[in-house]
Amino acid sequence: MLATLTDEPFDDTGWIYEIKWDGYRAVSYLNKGSVEILSRNNLSFTQKFKEVAEALKAWNINAVIDGEIVAMNDKGVASFQQLQNFANKGESTHLIYYVFDIIWLDGKDLTNLTLLERKNILQSLMPEDDSVIKYSDHIEEKGTAFFELATQRGLEGIMAKKSDSTYTKNFRTKLWLKIKNNKRLEAIICGFTQGRKSRKHFGALVLGKYEGDQLIYIGHTGTGFNDKNLGEVEKKLAPLVTVKTPFSKKPKTNMPVTWVKPRLVCEIKFSEVTDEGILRHPVFMGLREDKEAKNEMNVEVVDADERNNSKSKIKKSKKSGSENPKPENSQSKKNSKYKTQNAEHKTQNSKQLLPSTSKEETININNHELKFTNLDKLYWPDEKITKRDMLNYYYNIMPYILPYMKDRPQSLNRFPNGIKGESFYQKNVSGKVADWLTTYDYKSASSGDKKFLVCTDEASLMYIASLGCIEMNPWHSRIQHAENPDWCVVDLDPDDNNTFEQVIKAAQAVKKVLDAIDVPAYPKTSGSTGMHIYIPLGAKYSYEQSKLLAELIVNIVYQDISSFTSLERNLSKRKGKIYLDFLQNRTIQTIAAPYSLRPKPGATVSTPLDWSEVKKGLTIKQFNINTIFDRLKDVGDIFKPVLEKGIDLKKTLEKINSL
Question: For the chain, which has fewer Cβ within 10 Å, the N-terminal or C-terminal residue?
Fold first, then answer.
């Protein structure tokens, strides 16, 4: 399970906080004395860290555990440099394997248990007084104070983990967050290396600082850039190019270097300085055009908090003048940010499962070989969006969409030739899909027995997408409680003659009723022409009860806005009106999942909304394959409460009756 980097510590009752160990992440497979230790990249650590392997053998349990191998310095602090020296040169050091999670035990998969449940199991199994295997303990709620203490002790940072989170394999998630004790300095740019592969302009900046009158090499950074600032920095460096190195001692670099005169200063964020004076994890933050290199002869390392404080002082001094700046409307700023962008400004996602160099690929996901074919086929011809783009989208959106897909039977809506080709629904997959996939037997006297495909993990979701399923259509319930939906849906389905502004007014009318009966609800665009409003049920009630609830709500709404809405399902009978659909709340009925693509022009995405966004000016097309990831960076998954504790239906019905 991978964590997402975040800037600030925080306090929250639903989170726990652990030390972020500065070492090698290692998952260990223990089988009654047999041990294999693997890195994140599936490289074996078993021989490299024999001391740890021997300690794990002595533990003598049958489990898979997750942790971090660290080397402790003489101050009792984890030292990554000392760990590297041990791994590369065999230097003696005290190794500790801090274990923080258990994901399998005695033949049972524990990944669906909550984090606290897993940690309780792990702690109960820990060997006593072991000098190598240690339990990575945690505190609850008080993340800010814990981070301050970690910083004071020179630790790399802390981990924040949602206490009720399940274990999601191989994907970066916001249920685990890492908060680093980063520092900053103003470094002098002394050269740049060639870019690798498709990297334009340059690869990395070569950095230095003055000690006395000597310019000393302190490392290089290739992170923190985008196409825009790469080009801007290159333009400023071009007039400074020289054949002579500015360093008194020429450093070794991993790529050919173009030297420049040491004139430009940039701000760098980093985690620590090695014994040789080299920065670890340096990140380019920007040029300091207000600084001259000759004035940087005694560069100080400034803590991030101190830097932020000085910046806030500058802002305050600016505000103290005679001019009173007009406060900005944060919501209008947020809405304008997600206007439809041109396809040439696509969000560059960090993970591309399928490269653009081949028309087909076979890739191992969750220990299953998946073959992806026809990757160059245009699925959205007008937008030049290919099947490859669609598959890469689902690979990158996985941490967000999977919670709404996992363990749910699927109605497969297949578009093998893209949105302008023929499409067909496939519900019964008996004998038509890979044997390793989970299926669910549904028996029906009216429509016949069917075997539905069930999405269980990353591999099965990518398999579904590979069939040409542009959109994902899960049941409202999971196979563990197939007759009890997790949510109730009010589907606002407009006619061709309705405007989206009318859809917005209908959503606001639904919200008004729900507020009156104290029912929480969460809206999302359909990605097509309408909107979906979800009410959390917590799998406590039947489909019939869910349908009844939706029917009662829309009947009240209809009384308020009957001029442009209808309770008639038949298109001819409700022409020109928005259908307030409550019949979606039936077994095997499906609608597009949150974060699902839709087979519509613009490659739109069914996107969760904050109620403050449901107002005039909102459009469906502003949320699409090119814009959704920028939005998620800012707001995260705001739909999560749909999967949490459901409403009390008895109390809700009493409030409806009292209206």
Answer: C
